């Protein structure tokens, strides 16, 4: 396979944009490299969410991440959803757009869950065709993310990683590799997560997700409500060794801590990347974690003084 570059530039280290942190980001302007926004939260124009998103998107690169495309469903593609997605994309100019390789709806009913697909040649063709339609409409490649799963289909004829690879190749799309989801599925289905990494084409991996999960011993659930655990950090290091510097972010959807706690957790991701890839020039382009404590304190004090003047 030719070593042609098809991914976007390395963005560095980012965080999922959450409402809890809107004010902190605008007041303190942390040196995060980029933010990932949940597309569905901003599809309606106007209102406070769009105000904050627009303000933050003017200062930081952003990417869009969705949960409603239902790319694997047999329902017709929701063109109204795609139109709203494209409108949001035109408004905030994200670096890229992603969703999940799964199905969420059937007969027009949304399950509000990311459900796995049977891994068959027929499903590869079905999903790839739908991805091509979406990409033609949006005018860009999209990223597909692997989901965590808790069941498997008897009809499956291939491993998940082969399925994901074949869809990406057939549709000419990119991959959002969720490191935590690989770990969760590996535990639940008793496979070696390193086998997953080895079978994914490095040319198509655009982004990494890191997150925490709930471990119940016999099974693991992807809950996004814990810090990134040591097992996922270890798998992240293996992913860096396999794929090199890939734009990396931490997801947190519940039990969301104060912004400084997530900032420090993201510093661990950058630290691991620097130790694993000491000579990778892409890492040097990341500005995250380079602002000194004095700079941060000066910025906070300046913003505090400005807010006091406004109140006066």
UniProtKB/TrEMBL annotation:
Signal sequence interval, chain numbering: none
Protein name: UPF0276 protein GCM10009410_10660
InterPro entries in alphabetical order: MbnB/TglH/ChrH, Xyl_isomerase-like_sf
Xref: Pfam families: MbnB_TglH_ChrH
Taxonomy, superkingdom: Bacteria
SUPFAM superfamilies for this protein: Xylose isomerase-like (SSF51658)
Family in the record: Belongs to the UPF0276 family.
PANTHER family to which the protein is assigned, alphabetical: UPF0276 PROTEIN HI_1600 (PTHR42194)
